[in-house]
Amino acid sequence: MFAIVTLLVILAVVAVIGVAVYNRLTTLRERTRTAFSQIDVQLERRYDLIPNLVTVAQRYLDHEQDTLTDVIAARASATQARIEVAGDPANVEAISKLGAADGNLGTALGRLLAVSEQYPELKADRTMSELTEEVRNTENRVSFARQAYNDETRRYETYRLSFPQVLVARSTGFDPFGYLEASADEARERVEVTFN
Amino acid sequence: MDYLLLQDEAKRENRNLIVVFGAVIAIVAAVAAAVIAAVLWATLAVLTSFAEPEVATDADHRPLTEQLPWTVAYLGAAIFVAGVIVWVTRSRERSLRSLGGSGIARMLGGRRIDEHSSNRAERRFANAVSEMAIAARQAAPAVYVLDREPGINVFNAGWTHETTAIGITGGALAALERDELQAVAAQAMSHVFHGDARLNLRLMALVTGVAGLAMIGEDWIEASRPKDHARDEESVVLPLMVAGGLLYAVGWIGVALSNAVQRSVARRHELLADATAVELLRQSEPLSDALRRVGGHPRRGGLTDRRARSMNHLFMVDARRTGRGGVHPDLRLRILRLDPAWTGSWLEEQVPDVSRFPAPHAPDVDARHLGALAPSALPPIPGLELLAEPLGAAFGGAATPLLSVMAADVMTATPVVDERPSPEAARAQLDQIARDAGADPDSVAHGRSTTIAIAADALRATGVGSAEFTGVLRPQEDLDHWIVHRLITGHLDGPPELGGKRRSLERLKSEFAIALTMLAAIGGGDTTINFAVGAAAAGFIGLHPRSSSSISLDRLDRALDKLSRLDHADARRVRGGLEATMRGDGQSKRTEREFVSAVMLALHE
Lengths: 196, 605
Description:
Chain A is mostly helical and 196 residues long. Chain A is built from seven helices and no strands.
């Protein structure tokens, strides 16, 4: 009798712990998904801004078509990668591709802004000046959204892979999430843009 | 800098200090209860020894002191003391919560800004705040600027995450680079992230609760003044005076101790916020540079407004210019924690070299008598006569001399003044002033509200207040001068006083209808439909316009005075309604825009 009661108590404690762990995993997973959706919002804002930027720059950058073409191409790749991710941060391969494509776009944008510094008429253009601040703001937003997502992913993964949470996670289908890493190109060619 | 380690250290120290704070409050309450119980019990003992036996004992001949054991007396006193502390604390919390972050920001003299501001520096800071909100995974708070403050400082206010507001001084906007703006925004957001404002307000409220004991002690002392009582009441008066005196002393000692602990908690919060800001930015240089720039500034983080200084705990650095002590850690300590290799050098403010420009001719007139001056009596300020014509066309005859001097003040304060400008040069200088202020030059000469906003700072510096304009403009009794008067007083008058009951828009429907009717009448067209569009946008269905002919300027003033008691959310509804009416006919006239600006300035938005 005593053994049965003890067993029941143990089972009850395990069940309570299991439920608490499951709920915590669910909370962390949803926060990670929310953080990922925030990246999506900022990426969309960034992709929407680029056509305006290219249109204004085109008026002045007759001899820099390669730079403009790179930006347009990088935007197209990043847009495609974003579609492939389809809001699912558990798609690790797609996340990695998005990170690389987005990094390439950041590099191309940085090159465009650096080139535009050599054209005084473009620099003095009021629309360009406002757009430059918008681009800087948008780049920062994307970067911080990515950072926030990686922070949430780290918290989720750390909890998910710890013991005994890993037992609950594996048995209830909590999949890992991928990190959004900066591309190697972006790390080497990061361009600091300032307008005097 | 290992920001995670610093965060853990700051959090641990914080927890310990909160425990100490709680212990201080508990000890003060216990001592106060003991004082009250002791005095009560001693009074009973004295009464028992001097009173007649049939009064001093019960039916079983037990003395009164046996009927009231010490433990019961102490328990009763403890409940009384706890009740006082809790009641005063809750009252104080309620009054502090009623303001909200935006209310506090406006009380400090703040003006709301957003990402679409025409001022580049404001736009950069608003963008920086939104970036840091994303990094901190918080909703972006409302952003304010304290235009009149030349020091470098940032504040955050608000009881909850939803009602938080972040503000920056005009001096900081001018002095800080973009990455430094981002760093101070991160520091302010860190406070939001940790809920520091809520904890600080609770601690402040508890300190006030302890002060409540001292106030009760003071009341008892006052009630026991010997001359107010007959001789035979001295046996009651004396214990009351003793209890009051002891309670007064215990209360204020408790306030001093709990204040000291609360200041320590606030200092730890700042260090924690610095470490969290570095975590958000992933680098420490921008924040350390921003703090070095504070140290190198002549005013440091010092504020001129007394109310702002009284809210010192809301600011990033000491607002009293001492740079050390109080609720902020030493500036040098903070920089060394961020940059251990710092050599002690500050980032000095860059002062422009103006020696190559001609010395400006300052007006030698007492600005307080401007209202009595005719244009011909004004001093020979270079270019003044060239400003008179465009300003006269824009502002009307009575305001021309006043506003000419305002604009001239602005011109003489800048290093681009030419002694004998040509008409084109004078116009170019005015355009330059507009651009420096972030305004569209085309709007300056034809946009009165923009010109007034630009010149208001210069006018405040001369010591002229809105009263000087009131005497000239109000007697004109027409809407055009009323608008100019409201725009000027809106920019020159100080922020609302702390406290006061907020009103809801539902209770001020009639006042809102007066303002909306006036706007619909200004716009022309179908007034009824334009009014209905605006009322619906503000959330009112079935609200009827007033007869515009019955709305006098005095009545309009009274309506705006009542509407100025609205909270931020309802003020936004008013703005939404006015803008919907303004655009109801598909176009917005200059007078309509100015009227809306005048109303929103009255609502401190």
